[in-house]
Write a structure and sequence with these properties.
Elements lengths: L1 E2 L7 E6 L7 H14 L3 E5 L2 H7 L2 E4 L26 H13 L4 E6 L1 H14 L3 E5 L15 H22 L2 E6 L6 H9 L4 E3 L7 H13 L5 E6 L6 H13 L3 E5 L11 H19 L2 E2 L1 E6 L2 E6 H6 L7 H9 L2
Parallel strand pairs: 2-3, 2-5, 5-6, 6-12, 7-9, 7-10, 8-9
Antiparallel strand pairs: 1-11, 3-4, 12-13
Helix pairs in contact: 1-9, 5-6, 6-11, 7-8
Amino acid sequence: MAQFDPKNLKTIGVYASGGDAPGMNAAIRAVVRTAISQNLKVVGIVQGYTGFLEKKFIPMDLRSVANIVQRGGSILKAGRCVDFLQAEVRKTAVENVRAAGIGGLVCIGGDGSFTGANLLWQEHKMPIVGVPGTIDNDIFGTDHTIGFDTAVNTALDAIDRIRDTAASHDRLFIVEVMGRDSGFIAVAAGLAGGAEDIFIPEHPFQIEKTVDLIKRGVARGKMSSILVTAEGQKPGRAYDLADSIRKHSGYLATVCILGHIQRGGTPSASDRLLASRIGSGAVEKLIQGQCDIMVGTSGENLVAVELSQCLKQKKHVNRKLIELAQILSN
């Protein structure tokens, strides 16, 4: 765990990077108000790493984060900055930040954002603490990430509604949720929603086994089924699955792609609590002189994990939950 001398820390910068996630505003609010309670100034950096380069720095006070805890998205915007992959660009970014009087940073985002954060410390010794904000829940070192619970509940609400139609019309539905490289949303929403089977990028599957599951259900008089899949490398994976099922069984599947509705909306109570705790915890770590870490959770406790470990190690989906979904759907 990296250390720095916090005695000259007067101003903290906070930014959100990558994709937005419900609860980011609660984290921003926690950073701002915790820092101010410790007599520190706070500067918001607008639009992630792009804001570093374009000097989009705005002073933040208690009122600037009033009435945002319940709002989805990010009041500081978010987004990705391809130029930040270049070392000379990162050098300019740090120069801009230091010229603005910012002595420490809180980064709210996922693995791409943490990669940039880690490089800012490794290359330029810019003190920085990460706050895991991504609906994918795929950051190693923390039980949950900000936005995951809300995204799962959004998907689950859609699955519940689709099941009404599936039952009314005796149909097979395939519901596609977000998750390019990670199946956490698919597994959680699929199990909670009573899906017959779940498909995720990390777990190879045989379509024949899925067809057998559906056929066994039909043999028992089951007239409707729901399958849940993560989108994988490209949205629309559900159509490929539907076509494969048709070729192997003759069953026609209706596809429903949920898409970006999972990113938006009012954050759940769980995400607000999580964001508030770890946002505040990130400021406390900077005040203690600790940096190049992520603040996450393990059980009921806050934990600090080196950013390099978050990036090197992969968080794995519990595949037994897929097996449980298959058992419970019989």
